[in-house]
Amino acid sequence: FDLGTHGGSRYLTLELLEGEDLATRLEKRRGPLPIAEALSYLAQLCDGLQAARERGVVHRDIKPPNLFVTDDGTLKLMDFGIARRVNAPGVTVVGTIAGTPEYMSPEQINGFSEVTAPADLYSVGATAYQLLTGVVPFAYPELTRVLIAHATEVPRPLSERNPRVPPWLEALVLSLLEKDPAKRPPSARAVADVLRRGG
């Protein structure tokens, strides 16, 4: 909300959030969220990503711990610590990887410094998969295997893990998890529209 200096000290004021992040909510449930609840959060997430994209920002670390749900059900997209402005010089070192492996797009693994908006959509897909099934798309104990899976493996259909997931929603999530960025939905707004329309 504000930043400045007072009494020789610098300060930054932020919105006070009361609620919990989605990782905590999933842990408490010990399984998937109800479909309607997951749809609401995912649509709000896409709204936030669209707003960031319109300001030229790619988040690069979409995951449940960075999605905070307030007591009134509003989702807040947090932690822009490794975000970057598109088409702006950055400080990311070529050849480095940053982010959370369970939610990383193939292109983020292969070239983190060049990540664009479709990578965030892939991470939305990985997050949606977890909200709807209770597990991440690729759960292996070895970090290398998780990264290879994101680059080469097709996740199990969501309906095999949660039969309540409708076909249209399964198709949407799997389209977000396409290896080729060009095959993913065109924008976060388009995804939000499908989520609210119900197919």
Q: What secondary-structure arrangement, pairings included, does this model have?
A:
Elements: E1 2-6, E2 9-13, E3 19-21, H1 22-29, H2 35-54, E4 57-58, E5 67-70, E6 75-77, E7 84-85, H3 106-110, H4 117-133, H5 143-152, H6 158-161, H7 167-176, H8 188-197
Helix pairs in contact: 2-4, 2-8, 4-7
Can you offer a commentary on this structure?
With 199 residues, this protein is an alpha+beta fold. 42% of the residues lie in helices and 12% in strands. The strands form 3 sheets. The chain has a 3-stranded antiparallel beta sheet. It has a two-stranded antiparallel sheet with strand order 1-2.
Compact overview of the structure:
The chain has 199 residues and is of the alpha+beta class. The chain is built from eight helices and seven strands. It has helices at residues 22-29, 35-54, 106-110, 117-133, 143-152, 158-161, 167-176, 188-197, and strands spanning 2-6, 9-13, 19-21, 57-58, 67-70, 75-77, 84-85.
Order of helices and strands: EEEHHEEEEHHHHHH
The biggest beta sheet is recorded as:
3 strands, antiparallel
Note the overall shape: globular
SS summary, helix count: 8
Rg is: 17 Å
Query: In percent terms, what proportion of residues is strand?
Result: 5-15%
Mean pLDDT: 88
Order of strands in the sheet with most strands: 3-5-6
Feature tags:
3-stranded antiparallel beta sheet, single chain, 8 helices, two-stranded antiparallel sheet, alpha+beta, 199 residues
